[in-house]
Every structure is written in structure tokens, then in C-alpha cells.
Amino acid sequence: MKTSFLKTSVAVAGVMLLPFLAGAQEKATLAISSIKPTPALSSAMNTRTTTTTDVKNADGSAKHEALTFDTKEELNRIIQSLDSQLIDRVNATRKFDVVGRSDLADVIKEQDLGASGNVDSKTAAKAGKLAGAKYLLVATVDDFDDYIEKATFAGTGQTATKRVFRFSIVGKLYDSSTGKLLESANFQTGNDEFKQIQTDRNYSEKNGELSDEMMVAIARSMAEKIALHVADVIFPAKVLVKRDNVVTINRGEGGGVAAGDVFNVFAQGEELKDPDTGESLGREEVKVGRVKISQVNPKTSQAQILEDTGIDKGAVLRKAP
Length: 321
Hints:
The chain is of the alpha+beta class. The chain has two domains: 28-234, Rossmann fold, CATH 3.40.50; 239-319, FlgT, C-terminal domain (Thrombin, subunit H, Beta Barrel). The protein is built from eight helices and 16 strands. It has helices at residues 2-23, 39-44, 71-92, 101-111, 113-116, 121-130, 191-201, 212-234; strands at residues 28-32, 36-37, 49-57, 60-68, 96-98, 135-153, 159-175, 180-189, 205-206, 209-210, 239-243, 246-249, 262-273, 280-296, 301-308, 316-319. The strands form three sheets. Strands 1, 2, 3, 4, 5, 6, 7 and 8 form an eight-stranded mixed β-sheet that branches. Strands 11-12-15-14-13-16 form a six-stranded antiparallel β-sheet, with no helix packed on it. Strands 9-10 form a two-stranded antiparallel ribbon. Helix 3 packs across helix 8 and helix 4 (101-111) runs antiparallel to helix 6. It is globular, with a radius of gyration of 25 Å.
């Protein structure tokens, strides 16, 4: 009798817990490959060289001297920092569990994914499944250069210098359960952002070369771009609740939002499918308003409603251009 009562009580308790268990969702798991340059870029990296070119200007002849640093060593140091920075920035989005880095390294080596960036559905699925990850991110550096261009004007003897900096990464995001490529995007940084990072943090240089702190800052900036884009593709920012003229969204510190940012708000409709392939193209989105971030908290943020033609819980936010 007691045994029967105990079994019944446990069964009832289990049924009562089902709604709570069903509502509890785990974070998505994401495997990140080691970042490497393309073979073509690796072979193009040169040691320090100086080239001189003479050109004619309105005020006479000008000698242009371009000094190229040891770009191969510089790139390697930035990539080493970017490897760890990317994991940190992905984790900061609070949307993913980063797993299987050591297991994934063996697959990367076997398939040569990190070096070539050539990933098909089979290798992506194999790599992700081995690491126990739902998603696989493969990032490959496809362009890098850093040099100072110096011009000496013969007529006046005056000189002018200009730093040229370029850094570009191609990121590919796969669903490892199917091997399907979900997103491919190019992330770049150049002279303007380089100068802004240097000005904001007052990073120094030694003989023209980047300091270690500056390299980390560049790597962190690029890692944040990639991490936030991945989060937006899989988990776009959404409205959690709307009260009066304020909405709370599911992005906080580390989620790519800052006070003053303006977002367009979209209501989601039915799923859209390609009539030719049957492939899901996502869900229909209809703009229903605009909001401006007013407060950023550790896990959520509040935004003031600027326009509202139907903002409601579950609406998707996308940063306004």
C-alpha cells in the first residue's frame, strides 16, 4: 500500500515538473576552430623591407618611401590573441556554451579546415558532432597588411607620413547536425578603426610597430564583431516585455548594445520557404517601430520607444543603419 502510494506520488510530482522542464532551455553549444591565415596569405607575408618610388607632383618631384614591418610575426601575434579573445567574446554574449576545442583541433588538423577554410557539409557535421556542438564556427584570415608610407617633397623638403593598416577575416557558421552553411560573412578593420582604437586607449608603438597592447585591442575589436554577428544570426535580440513607453530586451553587457543605440523593431510572421528548393528562408518580418537603448544591465537592457505601430513581446530588434 505504502509502495503504491509512493509510486503514485512520484508520478504526480513528475507530471507537475514537466512544464518547468519543458520551459528550461539550455544554451546552444558552439565549437570554434583555431584561427589561421589562408595559405596564400601565409606565403605572401614578408619580413621588413623598404621600397622607394619617385612620382611627379605639381610642386616637383616627390620621393615616396614605404616601410613594411615584419608582418608575418605581427599577424601571428594578433591571431594568437584573437584565438582566445573570440572565445571570451562569444561567451560574453551569454548565448552559447563553447565546447570541444581540444577535440575539434584533431578534426581541424585532419581535414585542414583551419588552414584552407574549405568546409563542406560532411566535414562540418563531423567536426561539430565530435565536439558535441550544435554549431561550428570557422574563421580564416584572408587579408592583412601594415606599413607606413612616407612622402618627401623635393620642392620644400617637407615630409608626410601615412599608416596603412588592413585586417580581414571570413567567418563561416555551420549547423553541425546537417552540415548546412548558415552564414558566411567578411569582417574587416582598417585605418579609421585602427586610429580610433589607438586614440581611445592611447596605445603606443615601438619603432612604428604595434605594441602588444595594441595587438590585443585590435584582436578584441575583431572578435567582438564576429561574436555579435554569430549571436544575431542564431539568436537575434528580442523584446521580453513592454511597459508603457519602455521595452526590456534580452541583451545586456557584452551583448553588443550601448546606451544611445537605436534599433528597428520587427514583428515576426510565418515561415518563408523557397518555392524551388523548399529551403527555409527564415520568418517574415514587418517593421513595427524603433527604440533607443536607455540602460544596459548585466543580462538585459531597457529601451525607450521612439515609434510604435505594434511592438509586442517576442518582436525582433535589429540595429538601425
